Amino acid sequence: MRLVSLVPAATEIACALGAADDLVAVTHDDDHPPEVRRLPRVTRTSLPPDATSHEIDAAVKTAAERRESTFHLDAGALRDARPDLILGQTLCAVCAITLDQVPRALRAPVVPLDASSLDGMLEDVGRVGNAIGRARAAELLVASLRARLEAVRTRSAGRSRPRVACLEWLDPLFNGGHWVPEQVEIAGGTDVLGSPGERSREIAWAEVVAASPDVLVLMPCGFDERRAASDGQRLRRLPGWDEVPAVRAGRVHPVDGNAFFSRPGPRLVDGAELLARLFAAA
Questions:
Q1: How many CB atoms lie under 10 A from the CB of residue 49?
Q2: Per-residue model confidence (pLDDT) at position 64
Q3: Res. 95: pLDDT tops 70
Q4: H-assigned helices in 176-266
Q5: Has this prediction a pTM greater than 0.85?
């Protein structure tokens, strides 16, 4: 079966199910597992590679106002890939390709991924597994991921629960949304800015200060830990920075949001495990 993935989470799910060799094309953002980096790309972005977080936010908002996207489909590359099945998503129309952007003339059968929660991610694993003939592998993977989440919850039980603020974007500030509050709760914390299943939202720095978090996690969407640490430097200049309990306690943690918090695939479980380690390290 010739698979084309239009979202990195779908690529990671397919590979986790043992279907890496079936993938024939992916997006320009795909980088995990490493072997997918050699595959042809069927998307591109209009965002400059050196754009600042503020510039990226402005471009995304402008695209949304115009009902456009910062991600663009290469119809010719998709045609050349000759997919038997397309894996896509319906969650974000501005910063990823959605299935309704695929020209009908080029459409193979599609599998839509629409997770906005950890359970939704696990359901997507099953959906992909059924579609690509790997239902048993999907059952085993889902069982393994559930067991790991339960192990994190069990290890965290009985500890004092830190107040946790997760920032999904740093200029302007957005809180962590969708599954992030669930990851925090399973890891033993209390999310003071978000609720499970809700979208991230733009927030004022004063809201972060007022929330008085014991732990501050910087997880900008699509960025690795190094970029999170670099972009996080601007927060130090904001009023009240030194008053935040997490700052006073040295518990401000830049993390790899791209790998563990932005993509609704199996590595969300790695993200919960990472948070548990951060919360336990007083």
A1: 5
A2: 82
A3: no
A4: 180-186, 205-211, 225-232, 245-248, 257-260
A5: yes
